[in-house]
Amino acid sequence: MSPVELSHSRTFPTTVEAAFDLVLPMPLTQLFARRYVAIPPITRVDQDGTWGVLGQQRTIRTSDGGSMRETLTTLERPHRFGYEIDAITGPNKALVAGVRGMWTFAEAGTGVEITWAWSITPTRVGALLMPVFGRLWQGYARQGMEEIEKAVRA
């Protein structure tokens, strides 16, 4: 299956360095605490230490009983960090075989543009549903950016 590319960007009134240092270790249970239609919130993350060591892995658990393993694969402070998601269980297992994710941070006027991107490898069934999933993901990403805005303003 060909990967499906999704991304969502937003500009914030802070520096590239401050944004990177805020987002990288931000608890996923805070960043993705709200359901967006069929995409469940993250309820627990099993990891050792603070997130931010290349090669580090953690298990993400969602409110629908699903889980996934995330591995930090790219770490280029303060411009980007990336990860891979695999070992997906629960309802999303039927849709998604794997994900490559990337957060990027770029100067934008007097602030920073943060972009969250996913390259999804869908299952055969998931490929049929990706147009709908992509629209839902955009709403989920928007909610995540709202949580970043709250943290920037705090």
Question: Which key features would you list for this structure?
Answer:
single chain, 154 residues, alpha+beta, Alpha-D-Glucose-1,6-Bisphosphate, Chain A, domain 4, 27% helix, Polyketide_cyclase/dehydratase, START-like_dom_sf
Compute the CA-based radius of gyration: 15 Å
Going across the biggest sheet, name each strand in turn. 1-7-6-5-4-3-2
Q: List the uncertain runs.
A: none
Largest sheet: 7 strands, antiparallel
Q: Do you know the CATH architecture? A: 2-Layer Sandwich
Q: What would you give as the CATH superfamily?
A: START domain
In what range is the share of β-strand residues?
Answer: 35-45%
**How many individual domains?**
1
What name is given to the CATH topology? Answer: Alpha-D-Glucose-1,6-Bisphosphate, Chain A, domain 4
CATH class: Alpha Beta
The proportion of residues forming helix, as a percent range, comes to 25-40%
| Count of DSSP-assigned helices | 3
From the helix content, strand content and strand pairing, which structural class follows? alpha+beta
Task: Compute the average pLDDT.
Answer: 96
Would you count the extended β strands for me?
Answer: 7
Protein name: Polyketide cyclase / dehydrase and lipid transport
Pfam families: Polyketide_cyc2 (PF10604)
Organism: Nocardioides ginsengisegetis
